[in-house]
Amino acid sequence: MADTNFDLVVVGGGPGGYVTAIRGAQLGLKTAVVEREHLGGICLNWGCIPTKALLRTAEVYHLMQHAEDFGLTAKDVGYDVKKIVARSRKVASRLSGGVGMLMKKNKIQVFAGQGALAGKGQVKVTKDKNVVATLKAKYIVLATGARARILPGLEPDGKFIWTYREAMVPETMPKSMLVIGSGAIGIEFASFYKTLGVEVTVVEVMDRVLPVEDEEISALALKAFKKQGMNIITGATVKALNTGSSNVTATIEKDGKSERLTIDRVILAVGIVGNVEDIGLEESKVNVDKTHVVTGKYSETDEPGVYAIGDLTGPPWLAHKASHEGVICVEKIAGKNPHALDTSRIPGCTYCHPQIASVGMTEAKAKESGHKVKVGRFPFLGNGKAIALGDDQGLIKTVFDADSGELLGAHMIGAEVTELIQGYAVAMTLETTEAELMETVFPHPTLSEMMHESVLDAYDRGIHI
Amino acid sequence: MPIQILMPALSPTMTEGTLSKWMVKEGDEVTSGDIIAEIETDKATMELEAVDEGKVGKILVPEGTEGVAINKPIVVLLEEGEDAGDIKASNQAAPILEKLAPTVEPEKVKAAPAAQPTAAASNTVAPSSDGDRMFASPLARRIAANAGINIADVQGSGPNGRIVKADVEKAMSGGVMTSSSVNVPAMTAVSSASADVPDFGQPYTEEVNSGVRKIIARRLLEAKQNIPHFYLTIDCNIDALLSLRRQLNNLDHADYNLSVNDFVIKASAVAMRRVPMVNATWTDEAIRLYDNVDVAVAVATDGGLITPILRHADQKGLSGISNEMKELAGRARGNKLKPDEYQGGGFSISNLGMFGIKEFSAIVNPPQSAILAVGAGEQRPIVKDGVLAVGTVMTCTLSCDHRVVDGVVGAEFLAAFKPLIENPLSLLL
Questions:
Q1: pLDDT of residue B128
Q2: N or C terminus of chain B with fewer C-beta within 10 Å?
Q3: Hey, where are the domains in chain A?
């Protein structure tokens, strides 16, 4: 009989839940994780990681197609969908196994099943409708994540109309595709399929693609996608999807005019909803607002002893936000004195081609918040490493508060920017001003030099521009 | 150089004060922590503590002087090896201070009074007074310099006490600051004796007491020492309450989420109306009975306990009480209550039921005369008509100031309170 008394029970083993559990165990809490499907959650199994594997395939394929530009010969460049998907699945399963090892190493007990609150300090674990365990816990952290949002009339069928889940494991390559929604998820799939030769249309309800990004970056992304041959319709909505025997006809409305488009496949990427069902919230004091659990500064819910983190709670809905939130939550539980998470310093990355990354406020948001701003820009065209890479399109933009020199935001588009953004995130966390960034030595030749130049440009001191 | 001590700003609204009493005379040796004077503001009389040590060289403002502007020098301390002759030099330095002062914008003086406590205080940021490196983020330094705040006066909250932007902003808005020569003292006359606690060689870390923590400590000590407490305990069956609560919370379009505590607040308010003597304050001349039913509810925050007040609680509905309480508690935790939202009140409620505490006795919150300590509602065996049954029972303990509330009066209150809790529909009447 397994031990069922714990200090900490985490419901959900995704990037929020398993990290919370490890930190809890490090702090001496006797910890258990309840996971209904697989450790690592959506992120690791059906999200961040497997899509990065697919996008790497797309990137290599793209380079091979342009081998001549690099003085190489590559003939009969082609691909095998099954092998592409198999590689992506292998990457995911390798990591999921790794999380299992981490649980063992930290002596965290893993219960397979659906976890739900069951009265004060108790979690019930259900598997195939049978209660397999009832766990007692002083503290309960809910980390059940989220799933794709479904709009009425645009329901997925798993065959022709996909969510991210089917989009990740195509059996054959469709000829044409409609992606509904141009957030990070929609654009990454659009980029993957487009690079592999699919005719891709993206419909976005807002007036620009990647609407959370800085307007300037958004405009550059639109230009790049159009150049690749993507058909992008902004300010439009998909009114209906009619499934035929082998394809789908979409009714797209823009400026009051309807248009029909027939495509092989549709991907729905119109946001997410929190997994608030079947976890026992109804009988508790936990408050839910628009499918997300309402929490305080340290992830506490309205039910004493019950906490919630990650996608189950408020935005931004990102794996690294979930992990970090979980660590802060459990440190607070263990009596440490952590700072609450500052959501204005959480970087966001989109791994399409070209890559997009940002942290902090957009220029518009900074002005709207009453800041007098100084804005710096540096184009990839002026950077030696970018030209050597053969990837000379892009921009690094920085936004400073004119009075204090606080770095309010940084916005990037171009090669490898998802790896660069962390430099600015560290700078923001350490509260550097423009002066320290200017004093920092950036190695030559690297893409990171553009980060330096962008700061210099904000103060009219740019060298290579 | 002799140290000038300036008239401190003891509240965010204070612009001037009365130097009511000197606790030292010229020639006295003072050390850090000694109380040197009593200062009366528009709100209260407070003690002024010395931070530096030295000899009282010259008292510049005589006892009883009214309308002393903040930041005006009131006394000069001589450091070791200095004598009265040095004061002259110091006085010559004073006009420099006055010349400097107007360069700081008036509103910032008000917001951060401790920022220029001595003539010597400068805005340079480098080392702290003891020569150690100051750990502060570049942004914090820049914002402090722009606002004319000495970074050394700001309490850091970052890793290892590093001063970050939020700390400077808090200091600018009048939050807790340490200062280099004047400590803002606490409210009452209980002296502190922190220095001489033996440690018996045990390892420890010290968390420096915040101003709020000190006020809580002194007030509670004063209350428990001065108020003749007695306690009355009663069990209330809350099955009907829980069922009514569920029913109300499940109504369509409910824009509230009632807690058991909301019912306790409402029932206390109604019972206070019926037994007005619990809603009163002792003074030596008279017992002051309050016209309004204002209930203070204890809320735990990171900085300590605070009691936001639900005014006219007897006239408010449950949903009104619930929503107002949530809003007040939220702001209390965010340290955003205005003084008039937590000062006053005629009665307090402290609820530890959510932690599973069965019962406890609270300390009366002066100047009030009674506080209700509420335990957890838990299933217990009860005897009903000679038969053993299970009921949800919540134990409540009333702590009373016997100078105001006699045993019978306290019992009358609980006798009024219990049926309101056990049969909450009667709250409608």
A1: 46
A2: C
A3: 5-147+273-343, 161-270, 354-458
B229 in active site: no
From the list A206, A216, A188, the residue with the least C-alpha distance to A53 is A188
C-alpha–C-alpha distance, residues B295 and B307, integer Å: 9
Hey, is the C-beta of B259 within 8 angstroms of any chain A C-beta? Answer: yes
Mutation target among A404, A406, A434 for the B interface, most CBs of B within 10 A:
A404
Residues B229, B253, B312, B402: which is the catalytic one? B402
The residue behind tokens 């955003």 is: B336
Q: So what's the pLDDT on residue A201?
A: 98
CB B124 within 8 A of CB B140: no
Q: What is the predicted pLDDT for the residue at A181?
A: 96
H-type alpha helices, A380-448: 384-389, 417-429, 434-439
Condensed to tens digits (0 to 9), the pLDDT of residues A326-375 reads: 999 999 999 988 889 999 999 999 999 999 999 999 999 999 999 999 99
Question: Which range has the worst mean pLDDT, A104-118, B36-50, B219-233?
Answer: B36-50
Question: Distance between CA B37 and CA B119 in Å, rounded?
Answer: 20
Q: What is the per-residue pLDDT for B185?
A: 36
pLDDT band at B55 (very low <50, low <70, confident <90, very high): confident
Give the per-residue pLDDT at B112: 36
Closest CA to B364 of B165, B190, B212, B231: B231
- What type of residue sits at position B172? M
Residues 319-358 of B with CB under 8 A from A: 333, 354-356
* Size of the A and B interface in Cβ pairs below 8 Å: 37
Closest-CA residue to A192 (of A218, A168, A156, A221): A168
Entry pTM: 0.60
In 3D, which of B358, B360, B345 has the Cα closest to residue B393?
Answer: B358
User: What residue in B sits closest to A303 (Cα-Cα)?
Assistant: B354
**Dist CA A440 CA A341 (whole Å):** 27
User: Which portions of chain A are predicted below pLDDT 70?
Assistant: 1
Provide the CATH topology of domain A161-270: FAD/NAD(P)-binding domain (3.50.50)
Which is more confident, B134 or A66?
A66
Query: Does the pLDDT of residue B96 top 50, yes or no?
Result: no
Domain A5-147+273-343: CATH class, spelled out: alpha beta
Q: Give me the torsion for CA of A7, A9, A13, A14, rounded to 10°.
A: -80
HSE at residue B187, side-chain half, CA atoms within 13 A, is: 16
Which residues from A are below 8 Å from B146, CB to CB? 403-404
The second-level CATH assignment, the architecture, of A354-458 is 2-Layer Sandwich (3.30)
Beta-carbon separation of A431 and B137 below 8 A: yes
The CATH number of the domain covering residues in B121-185: 4.10.320.10
Best A431, A434, A437, A440 residue to mutate vs chain B (most B CBs within 10 Å): A431
Q: How confident is the model at residue B86 (pLDDT cuts 50, 70, 90)?
A: low
The topology (CATH level 3) of B215-428 is Chloramphenicol Acetyltransferase (3.30.559)
Distance CA B235, CA B421 (A): 10
**How many C-beta neighbours within 10 Å does residue B123 have?**
17
Which are the catalytic amino acids of A? Answer: 444
The answer for residues whose C-beta is within 8 angstroms of residue A152's C-beta and 6 or more apart is none
**Sequence spans of domains, chain B:** 1-103, 121-185, 215-428
Over residues B395-420, the mean pLDDT reads 96
**CATH class of the structural domain B1-103:** mainly beta
**Rounded mean pLDDT, B228-242:** 95
Weakest mean pLDDT among A130-144, A428-442, B63-77, B136-150? B63-77
Domains A5-147+273-343 and A354-458 share a fold: no
When pLDDT is cut at 50, 70 and 90, the band that residue B113 belongs to is very low
Alpha carbons A86 and A54: distance in angstroms, whole number: 10
Show residues of chain B in contact with A436, CB under 8 Å: 138
